[in-house]
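User: Structure please.
Assistant: Input sequence and predicted structure:
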Amino acid sequence: MEKFSISKRYLKHPFHIVDPSPWPFFSSFGAFSTVVGFVMTAHFYDKGSLLMKLGFLFLLLCSIFWWRDVIRESTFEGQHTFYVRQGLRMGMILFIVSEAMLFFAFFWAFFHSSLNPTPELGAVWPPKGIEALNPFHVPLLNTFVLLNSGAFVTWAHYSLLAGYRKQTINSLLFTIILALFFTCLQAVEYTQASFNISDSVYGSVFYMTTGLHGSHVLIGTIFLLVCLVRLIQHHFTKKHHIGLENAIWYWHFVDVVWIFVYLFIYWWGYGTN
């Protein structure tokens, strides 16, 4: 009986028991410092901006080292077995669903204000004094750019599955270029807008929704850039590319959300003017 219990204790299993890591604690400290610095900056406290920048830099460094450890466990230690990859896929799905609920909240706020505008807004939407952006100018170009980036990232995925490494690298590189181009166009659009975030509920919802989506585009771009570097270094194979697969899922989510942002915030909001 004792012999059986000892042998059972050392049985191998397909799950990854992670080693103790300092990065969760340090990352939470960096995130806390960033948020506190942001709040201090918003209330015009001295040193608030400095604290926010230092906290964000510390958080960024922790993320880099944490990501390095995950890559090491996956690529060089072989810890990401089939069951681990299934768990990572499920985690990514749940994360995307939670992000979708976040955008749903902002869309709810938009329609709550636009379908029944109050007298304070002039009983019209967009509110009086707000000149909405033309959806057929920069926003339409941005839609074309982002949808094409989704096509390129799909090409990258299927090229990897087919074993065409050069095509995978090229298509992923084109995706990143289009993502950066989208971000630049978004910045140009903000400079051309005649309203800001403090101009009634329209400005608040517009900048919060498009800004939130823009931050997701930046995160997705970094995600794809890391995957491109790993791809060049032969970290991915036909059967083992969970990092790239999750990045592609995330990028398709960004594409789909932008379609709703364009239709609701830009096109429908402009059409009611």
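Residues 82-114 form the longest helix (33 residues).
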